[in-house]
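Protocol step 4 of 6: structure prediction from sequence.
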Amino acid sequence: MKEFAEAIFQGMRDGIPDALSAVTSGFWSRAYDFTRDQGSLVSGFMALAAGAVAYIAGRIQANATKTASDNQLKSEKERVARDVETLRKSLALELRQIAVGVFDSHLAVKKAALDQANPVTTRMLDRLISIPVPLIFPAIADRIALLDGAAMDVMIFYNLVEISRDSAEKLKRNRDPDDISQTNVGVLATALLQAACAARDILPQLRPGTTSNDNKDEELTARVTAAAVEWNQWLIARQMPPIG
């Protein structure tokens, strides 16, 4: 108002047209400044809104990515768990078959070792030893660590089975194939029993998924334990370490 009054006063001195020119010039200048300020404010709000939208969209995308990653990880864990369970059940069935074969072979070889009246021949060993060839274990050997605590025991069992096979093959190459030393045959019986004892200790850790084998497991465990107690007498008499 002060400027307007000054303009009027100046106009009274300089003339009305000049006064009006000054007034209108100041008015449009202030209108331009106001419009410019309002435009800057609107632009600022628009930029802020755009940033908020971008942030929300980013959060939504990040959450969707995390959810997809979590679902994929969960699915992978479930798949691994299924694979491990299948591995356990398959290996449990094979292990029981081999354990029975190893123990039955021990009983037959032990009988031949204690029979002093009849010599043991290589042909007899072929008939006395009947151990199924493992098929599942070689196929999953690279994943055996998935069995966690049972992995080492499983490895020991299959190694003992192979030691028994190697011992039998060495006896078959005896210098006199029709008269194999009873002591050497007894050593083979010991190797077979050690493998059977290893299987006995693994049975509770690897179950085939049904309870129908529980009675068979208990029976096999009792028979192996009794056989170990009996055979230890033969070992101690020859100053050999007993079997646990």
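Step 5 (inspection) to follow. Residues 2-69 form one domain.
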